[in-house]
Amino acid sequence: MTDNGLSFPTSLGTSDPTTIRLLGQDLSADLMGKVGFGELAFWLVAGRRPTPQETRVFETVLVALADHGFTPTAIAARLTYLSAPDSVQGALAAGLLGGGSRFLGVTEDCGRFLADVLAAHDGPLPADDEGFDALALAAITEARAARRLVPGLGHPVHKVQDPRTPVLLDIAEQEGLRGPHLRLFEAIGRVHPRVLGRTLPLNGAGVCGAALADLGLPVDLLRGFALLARAAGLLGHIAEERRNPIGMDVYLAVDRNAVYTAEPGDATSDGSGAAPAGSARPPVPTEPPGTAGGTAPPSSTS
Question: Model-level pTM?
Answer without folding.
Answer: 0.84
